[in-house]
Amino acid sequence: MSDAVDQLISDFYAKTPLRYAFDFPQICTFLENRFNFLSRSLETTRPLQIYWTLFPYMLSIRQLKVQLDFLLNSDLWDNMQLSLVQEHLSNAQQQLNKLKPMIIQTLRTDFCQREFHHFHIMNAYGTVLSLKMLNFDVNQLAQNALFMLTQLQCENGAFRANPEGESDARTTFAAVVIGKLTGLLNEPIFAQTREYLMSKQSYQGGFCSNGLEPHAAYTYCALAALKILNVELNAEEKSLHLHYLVNRQTKWGGLNGRPYKDPDGCYSWWVLGALHILDKDKLKLVNKDLFNKFALNCCQPEDGCGLRDKPGVEPDSYHTAYVLGGWSIINGALDDEEVCLGICM
After folding, report:
1. Is pLDDT of 240 > 60?
2. Contacting residues for 167 by C-beta, under 8 A, at least 6 apart
């Protein structure tokens, strides 16, 4: 960790009162504003941006339901507190129901009608996952998905980002998720994908992109894809990856993607997700209290609107998704399939 970030976090804790919960209503408001922006936006990454917005929105609704259930089964509440949580939950659910037709129409149209050469596999990933979370029958996309994946297939079992783009564990993971959700995993295009992913293991533990240095995000992508493909690692491989992942926690509780790097809120998902997939019982090797302190304070701005990388950085949908996703993993709020795919059902 750099001295500058170490000092930044130290100063932040010295000046800022500790918080012990996320402000889910404020997070919902932040994400609703993002939805309104995306509905008018022409940005080329819109499907992925929608996914990064929808995923934490649904996680927030889930946590508001948890709060409501807790209050209903506890003697430690008053009518005002109960009514407030009920109101926040009702508002969030109403907003989701209002947005749902627009999101489905936008994503389905983009996926089925956009010229293929202008599409990116990560946009396809965001499309399929978002539609799945909205209970749309993604099998309807199978024909288009098969055409796209066939064009992106590499001889070594990997998949490219686009016809002229790079291929790595990240883009291959996206292809596997799309294949899983659209019922295409038994197609010949995935015949060599297992071997490709296994070849990206590092002798240091973790998985690489196309270089030699392992990285937490690629490690999550590879482990999740292998899990979906029903590949079981041996004991030595698991031990190496476990050692690599557990050592991603910094002294402040936040997680980094590589040794000696600064903590970043998004690695909450990549590291804890990878650990959960590898052996969820090993999540206990992460200092949960210290992680929660970092996530709830360093990653949550003073007004509670959205989540961020670290203090001094503006919140955004990407970090809101992956900070809240990682927090949900270590606090037992996501099941195995949700962690592998990156969804909240």
Report:
1. yes
2. 154, 158, 159, 160, 161, 210
Indicate if the pLDDT at residue 114 is higher than 60. no
- Confidence at residue 138, expressed as pLDDT on a 0 to 100 scale: 95
CA end-to-end distance (rounded Å), the chain: 36
Q: What is the CATH number of the domain that holds 250?
A: 1.50.10.20
CB atoms within 10 A of CB 276: 26
| Containing structural domain, residue 87 | 3-15+23-341
How far apart (Å, rounded) are the C-alpha atoms in residues 188 and 55?
A: 31
Q: Is residue 301 within 8 Å of residue 26, measured between CB atoms?
A: no
**CB-based contact 131:138 (threshold 8 Å):** yes
> Is residue 29 within 8 Å of 305, Cβ to Cβ?
yes
16 CB-side CA count, 13 A: 21
According to the model, what pLDDT value does residue 184 have? 97
- Domain count of the chain? 1
Mean pLDDT of 199-216: 90
Name the 3-class secondary structure at 257.
coil
**How high is the pLDDT of residue 164?**
86
Length of the chain, in residues: 345
pTM across the whole model: 0.95
Cα–Cα dist 138/157, whole Å: 24
**The Cα angle at residue 25 between residues 21 and 27, in degrees rounded to 5:** 80
